[in-house]
Amino acid sequence: MPMRRSLKGFARLAAALSVVACNSDNAILPPTGSQALAVLGQGVVTDRYTGEVFVRGNVAYTTTWGSRQAPGNAVNIWDVSGNVPTLVNTVIVPNAATLGDVQTSDDGQLLIVATEYIPDGSIMIYSLADPVHPQLITRYATALTAPGVHTAEVQRVNGKLYAFLSIDPGGGNQARLVIVDLSDPAAPTQVFTAVMGSPYVHDVYVRDGILITALWNQGITIWDIGGVGTGSVANPIALGSLITAGGQVHNVWWYHNALTGEERYAFVGQEGPGSIGSSSIGDIHVVDVSNFASPREVAFFHLDGAGTHNFSVDESRGILYAAYYNGGVRAIDIKGDLSSCDAANRDPIYGRCDLASMGREIAHGLAEQQPVYVWGVQLSGGRLYASDMLNGIWKLGEVPFPPD
Q: Which residues lie across from 220 on neighbouring strands?
């Protein structure tokens, strides 16, 4: 998002994802030179599959997905002030079959949760006057959100808070983006909608008045919503687009390098089919967006036996932390020129630099804790939090030294 941000749609992924028995034989060994991230503690969840994670201060929120012993209709709330996450509250969302994104507003006043399917898609908007006891303000649902809200990115644009909703296809309707003004959280107002994605609009990334949409087999599209031209949230203007190798575009992070000020790269997650607890497929694609009108793919990161999901980037140190499902967590050095490499490290088909063969993986987490199936990661307060579909929430140490 989800890191933002997902394996969140239940019906859409039923054909691609199967639930299987799993064991420690599924461990994917890290490369030489990749050090282990310290495992500080675990908050155990076994009755539901854990979905997204969002941390603010000493409180973590995790959603649940699909159906296990119980349906994925719970938001678990954790005290993470110590090493071991402690469950302090669970909020049951009525009339929901599965939950996806969870995120607080930037001022910490609101909690927004995306719901899918039974009976309709929606976003739940809660007050966080008491961060561990959210109080429902309203449930936003319209005919356009009915197929299911797969992801909900909450960001401020020109001082105003918006939710960017990626709506599932269904009921004869195509996937679409819906943007909602949250200035009055008790009465959200739709300000924009458009059909997009093939077959999904899966997620978005919003920063500095730029919107990047993850459109599955349509790749990514970059929009001006008030950042560089005459576009606005109510009237996005497309600036450029790119279909990354293999399609299946799931999520995006536009990297602002705090060390150099450079805003050159967007990291694009690809999600292929998999089996919960056992297997997954999908690379990280590096796109040069220095020219919005002509983005180009320059590098990729591939992990044999596992596929990526959501990201969290430490922009002050140039480290991308990626959830890699059955591959645990991988930390990748993203400093420097990612488009430059010798012939031995260059993809002969697309001409991209192969970050894995260049030794860019510098650390890993949970690879020895099998079985795991890590959905999301978030770096907060010098600690890394990982949501694991099979086991709950993990608290890890960050990379203990800057990469060379």
A: 214, 242
| Residues 102, 126: Cα–Cα separation, whole Å | 11
CA distances from 126 to 121, 135, 137 (A): 16, 5, 5
Q: Which of 116, 93, 114, 88 is nearest to 103 (CA)?
A: 114
φ, ψ dihedrals at 324, nearest 5°: -125, 35
Per-residue model confidence (pLDDT) at position 7: 37
Question: Which residues, 6+ apart, have CB-to-CB distance to 193 below 8 Å?
Answer: 144, 176, 177, 178, 179
**End-to-end alpha-carbon separation of the chain, Å?**
29
Report the amino acid identity of residue 312: S
Rounded to whole angstroms, the Cα distance separating 328 from 364 reads: 7
Measured CA to CA, the distance from residue 362 to residue 356 in angstroms comes to 10
Domains defined along the chain, listed by start: 10-397 (2.130.10.10)
Dmax over CA atoms of the chain, in Å, equals 57
Could you give the CA distance from residue 98 to residue 113 in angstroms, rounded to a whole number? 11
Instruction: Give 365's contacts (C-beta < 8 A, 6+ positions apart).
Output: 36, 37, 39, 328, 329, 330, 331, 384, 386, 394, 396
Per the confidence metrics, is the pTM higher than 0.90?
yes
Q: Which of 316, 252, 237, 313 is nearest to 287 (CA)?
A: 252
Does residue 17 surpass a pLDDT of 90?
Answer: no
Q: What pairs with residue 264 in β-bridges?
A: none
